[in-house]
C-alpha cells in the first residue's frame, strides 16, 4: 500500500486513480496513505468553477485546459457532480469533450459522484485534490454544480473561484442566490451569444459596485465557450487574481483557514468513530431505541447516560475512564 504513494510521487497515473478511488470509498487504509501524501502537497493552485447545471462549466474547463497547457502548466481536473450516482470515470458529455486531453500525460481528469463518497463529497473532493497536488499538478480545476450547500463547501477549498452565469433572458439577475454572489472572485457570463448578455453584464457590475469596496473587485468576463471567445481574458483574470492572492498574503490566510477546518474535521471524525466503536461494544443500542419509541425514556437523558456509561464524560473532564 505504501508503494502506492511512492508510485504516485513518481508520476504513475494508475496510482493516482487508485488513490482517488480509495479516498472516494473512505477506505480504512486511506488515512495512512494520506499521511504519506500530505508532505508533498501545497504546490498546486486550486481553481473552482461553479455555476448552474448546463451553464457551460465543462466547455470552459476544456478551453482553459488548452490555455494552461500552452503556458506549459500541468493540470488536474476534478468534475464533481453531486447529482450523479456515477463516479470513477467522466460523465458522458465530459468524456467526449475532454477526449482531446486523454493522451496528454500532463493532464489528469476525474469525475466524482455521490456514489461511494461516504462521509461527504466535499471531504472526498478535498482528499482527491491532495492526491493530485502530490502527483505534481501545477493547477487543479474543480468543476462543481452550484446548486446547494455542499457545492459552496467544495468551493471553499479553492484558491480562486469562478462563478459561471448565463444571460438572464427576461429575468433579472437579482434572482442569483446570495451565497453564490459572496464566493465569486471572478464572474463569467457564458453563452454571451444569447440575447440579454449585455444587460446581465451591466446588472452584475452594478451589483458589484454597490458593495463596499474590497481589496479585490471581481471582474465580469463575457465568454462564448463553444467558440473559444473570452477564454484568454478569463485566464488572464484568473492569473491576476492569483497574483493578488499571493501578493496580499490572502492566499496564506485562506490556506490557514482551510487547515483549521481540516484539523477540526479530523478531530471530530476520530472522536465520533471512537465513541461509536465503544457504544457498539458496550451498549444495547437497539433496546434503548425501543424504550425511547415507547416513551419509557427520552433521547436527551439517554444520550447523556450512554456517554457516561462508556466513560466518555470522565475522560472529557480528565478524571480518567
Ligand atoms: N449558445 C451557447 N451554448 C453553449 C455555450 N457554452 C456551452 N454551451 C452549451 O451548453 C450546454 C452545456 O454545456 P456544458 O459545458 O456541458 O455545461 P456544464 O455547466 O458543464 O453542464 P453540467 O456539468 O451538466 O452542469 C452544451 O450543450 C453546450 O454546447 C455558449 O457559449 N453558447
Ligand atoms: Mg459539466
Distance between the termini: 35 Å
Q: Name the structural class.
A: alpha/beta
Q: What can be said about the biggest beta sheet? A: 7 strands, parallel
Order of helices and strands: HHHEHEHEHEHEHEHEHHHHH
CATH topology of the largest domain: Rossmann fold
Summarize the structure.
This protein has 321 residues and is an alpha/beta fold.
Verbal overview:
With 321 residues, the protein is of the alpha/beta class. The protein is 52% helix and 12% strand. Strands 3-2-4-1-5-6-7 form a seven-stranded parallel beta sheet, with helices on both faces. β5, α8 and β6 form a beta-alpha-beta unit. α1 runs parallel beside α3, α4 crosses α10 and α6 packs parallel to α7. It starts with a helix and ends in a 5-residue tail after the last helix. The C terminus is likely disordered. Magnesium ion binds next to α4.
Itemize the secondary structure elements and their pairings.
Layout: H1 2-10, H2 13-24, H3 30-37, E1 45-51, H4 57-70, E2 75-80, H5 92-97, E3 107-112, H6 121-134, E4 139-145, H7 149-155, E5 160-165, H8 178-183, E6 186-189, H9 197-210, E7 220-222, H10 231-248, H11 250-282, H12 285-293, H13 299-309, H14 312-316
Parallel strand pairs: 1-4, 1-5, 2-3, 2-4, 5-6, 6-7
Helix pairs in contact: 1-2, 1-3, 2-6, 4-10, 6-7
Bound molecules: guanosine-5'-triphosphate and magnesium ion.
Guanosine-5'-triphosphate binds at residues 51, 53-59, 93, 145, 190-191, 193-194, 224-226.
Amino acid at each position: 500500500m505504501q508503494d502506492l504513494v511512492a508510485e504516485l510521487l513518481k508520476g504513475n497515473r494508475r496510482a493516482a486513480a487508485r488513490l482517488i478511488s480509495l479516498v472516494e470509498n473512505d477506505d480504512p487504509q486511506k488515512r495512512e496513505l494520506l499521511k504519506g501524501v500530505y508532505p508533498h502537497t501545497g504546490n498546486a493552485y486550486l481553481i473552482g468553477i461553479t455555476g448552474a447545471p448546463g451553464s457551460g462549466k465543462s466547455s470552459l474547463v476544456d478551453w482553459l485546459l488548452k490555455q494552461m497547457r500552452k503556458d506549459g502548466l500541468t493540470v488536474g481536473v476534478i468534475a464533481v457532480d453531486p447529482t450523479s450516482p456515477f463516479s470513477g470515470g467522466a460523465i458522458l458529455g465530459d468524456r467526449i469533450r475532454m477526449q482531446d486531453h486523454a493522451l496528454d500525460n500532463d493532464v489528469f481528469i476525474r469525475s466524482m459522484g455521490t456514489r461511494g463518497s461516504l462521509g461527504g463529497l466535499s471531504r472526498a473532493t478535498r482528499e482527491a485534490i491532495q492526491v493530485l497536488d502530490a502527483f505534481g499538478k501545477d493547477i487543479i480545476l474543480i468543476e462543481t454544480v452550484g446548486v446547494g450547500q455542499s457545492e459552496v463547501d467544495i468551493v471553499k477549498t479553492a484558491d480562486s473561484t469562478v462563478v459561471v452565469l448565463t444571460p438572464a433572458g427576461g429575468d433579472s439577475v437579482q434572482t442569483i442566490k446570495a451565497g453564490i454572489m459572496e464566493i465569486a472572485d471572478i464572474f463569467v457570463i457564458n453563452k454571451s451569444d444569447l440575447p440579454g448578455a449585455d444587460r446581465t453584464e451591466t446588472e452584475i457590475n452594478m451589483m458589484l459596485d454597490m458593495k463596499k469596496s474590497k481589496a479585490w473587485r471581481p471582474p465580469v468576463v463575457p465568454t462564448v465557450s463553444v467558440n473559444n471567445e473570452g477564454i484568454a481574458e478569463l485566464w488572464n483574470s484568473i492569473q491576476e487574481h492569483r497574483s493578488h492572492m499571493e501578493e496580499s498574503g490572502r492566499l496564506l490566510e485562506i490556506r490557514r483557514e482551510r487547515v483549521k477546518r481540516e484539523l477540526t474535521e479530523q478531530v471530530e471524525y476520530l472522536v465520533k468513530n471512537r465513541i461509536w466503536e465503544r457504544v457498539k461494544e458496550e451498549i444495547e443500542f437497539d433496546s434503548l431505541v425501543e424504550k425511547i419509541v415507547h416513551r419509557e425514556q427520552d433521547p436527551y437523558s439517554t444520550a447523556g447516560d450512554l456517554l457516561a456509561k462508556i466513560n466518555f464524560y470522565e475522560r472529557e473532564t480528565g478524571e480518567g475512564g
